[in-house]
Amino acid sequence: MQISKNEQKLHRGLEERHISLMSLGAAIGVGLFLGSASAIKLAGPAILLAYAVSGAVMFFIMRALGEMAVENPVAGSFSRYAHNYLGPLAGYLTGWNYWFLWVVTCIAEITAVGIYMQFWFPDTPRWVWALAALVLMTTINFLAVKAYGELEFWFALIKIVTIVFMIVVGLGMILFGIGNGGIATGISNLWKHGGFFPNGITGVLMSLQMVMFAYLGIEMLGVTAGEVKNPEKSLTRAINSVFWRILIFYVGALFVIMSIYPWNEIGQKGSPFVLTFEKIGIHTAAGIINFVVLTAALSSCNSGIFSTSRMLFNLAEQKEAPSSFAKLTKRGVPGIALIVTAIAMLFGVYLNYVSEKVFQWVTSVATFGAIWTWAIILLAQLQFRKRLSPEKQRQLKYKVPFYPYSSYISLAFLIGVAALMGYFKDTRIALIIGPAWLILLVAVYYAKGLHKRHIEAADKKQVG
After folding, report:
1. What local confidence, expressed as pLDDT, does residue 222 receive?
2. Scanning 21, 54, 292, 432, which has its CA 20 to 30 A from the CA of 32?
3. pTM beyond 0.90
């Protein structure tokens, strides 16, 4: 790998369409195609309410991120903002936590690739496909950022088109009986089988961890800020549109599925997406959906590798990671950071291979990491606002609606989800592994004397 001495900055090669689809690509992964079935079992039709409320909270979090990113568009944005507004330790923890969160998530995605490929190649070991996926995604990330963005655009587009097609056809069946002998199914399945809240409010609360996991990745727009052309225009448009698109894809798709099929049958007869396509007479539905789900896993992993390498680049620039992570290839890609990330994921594939439990815990651990990141974004934005004069606050180009109440309510919601994860046995492991990782990071921070470096840097700045 050749490192360019002339290239000191990441290339701004991403267009608005790239970053919009990248964030969608990261957020619409196995959480929708696989995770939704388990969430429906917990909450029944009321899962729609869980997605809608969580989506509203995510909207305020994204606006908070956008407010800071438009004013200061940098790579690894929320780690840098945490460093600037909450202190060096917060920035250090946030950067490394986000790297860990996406390494864990990508481990799930590439391991899932091995499972999906067995649909066509049942005799080939899963680890072969998982390894092939890791090598392929790492290679793609070594391309110039514009080429990477183009590939990710088409990756994400495949699954988006599939979901939109399913929603349109499903609505045709609900309203006009298309594919159902001309008999409109209606939406009575949403309350027929035990009511809209068949498992009570407890079921909805239990589903929130999986629901929030589904939104993981939407914050990636902030990570792209250092490589997007015209950040003010592109980021504001992308943030406003991505939230609504994700809400439509999740709530819209699940509304259609649960209207056509009783919620208590979903997951028992195969993928709800496969069932919907088979219902309208597409007999190769299983193969089509398997291809789309495979693409979804690859797309999410692709975005994850991108964001983790940029986060390591940002940490190295702040002298909180080895300086080699800040070195760029001739194409303006943080190559060494990419390789280190890929090696970490390789170890994770091995862990999944030897222990199924590790794979089962992934979603809850990743959700804890995401909650930390989202909470830091909100806290940093609150401090960012407090440091501005009233005049500068009025001049902000992109503001959080209903500030500061929306930020405080969103923070309370995140704390509530974290508490629920500790209350329910299946997700409690996340509140062991997540904090243990943060404690390890704090220990390393002080052991390496990073706190002294930051104090010295602050003193020099004051003297200067």
Report:
1. 64
2. 432
3. no
